[in-house]
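Problem 12. The chain below contains 150 residues. Write out its predicted structure in token notation.
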Amino acid sequence: MYAEKDRQPFVQLFQGQYAAREVYEDIINTTETEYAYLSPSRLTLQMVDRKYIEQWITRRVKKGINSRSLRVKEKNVPNESIFNNETEYLRKIRYLPAYVDLKASIYIYGNNIGVISTQKEGSSFIIHSSDLSFSFMQIFEFLWGISMKG
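Solution.
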């Protein structure tokens, strides 16, 4: 179904130890200029190992892909430039209001939406749908407009 020429919306489900990597690899392989995401920062290092995500960020920057991040502000996020520096790592970061919490990361890129669940669920999925990704991006833009810097 994935290789069919007719691109009707479809979903790919991934489970197991490397489920989150499938979303990250799809982002880096299909995104040309920018992707956006909503995420509790602690989730990334729970779902992929540190070495992988550091190498992935380096690959993303080398490819020139920018990111816009809406994060849940929390105290247990590593205070390291690779995760927080905006200019050097081609990212813009804003924070959702303090009362907002998320239990999954949602990535919007091209005609796709990638979702990475918690360690407890151990799964991720990619929704391939231009209409749905457009709608999610509109919601992201609204949230970006009401979010806060640092």
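Discussion. The longest strand covers residues 34-40. Students who got a different answer should revisit the alignment rule from Section 12.3.
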